[in-house]
Design brief:
about 70 residues, mainly alpha
Length: about 70
């Protein structure tokens, strides 16, 4: 994730952050919860590993793409 992402990028879905399950790329959202049930995700730190290390879709502010995790 880029350190240049700002609040406007997040609010306009232009952060470039990849979604936790990018269904357009064939990822299955339900598969996220097989090894780690959703009830075990309580704090932000529990949720971060699902998307924080994915390669960005684009540079911040360049492309608009809906993202649940942003």
């Amino acid at each position: 994730m880029s350190p240049t992402v700002n609040l406007l990028d997040l609010l306009t879905h232009a952060s470039g952050i990849r979604d936790d399950a990018d269904e357009e790329d064939g990822e299955d959202h339900a598969a996220l919860w097989i090894e780690k049930p959703d009830y075990s995700v309580i704090d932000t730190r529990d949720f971060l590993p699902q998307f924080a290390y994915k390669k960005p879709d684009a540079e911040p502010g360049v492309d608009c793409r809906y993202c649940n995790v942003g």
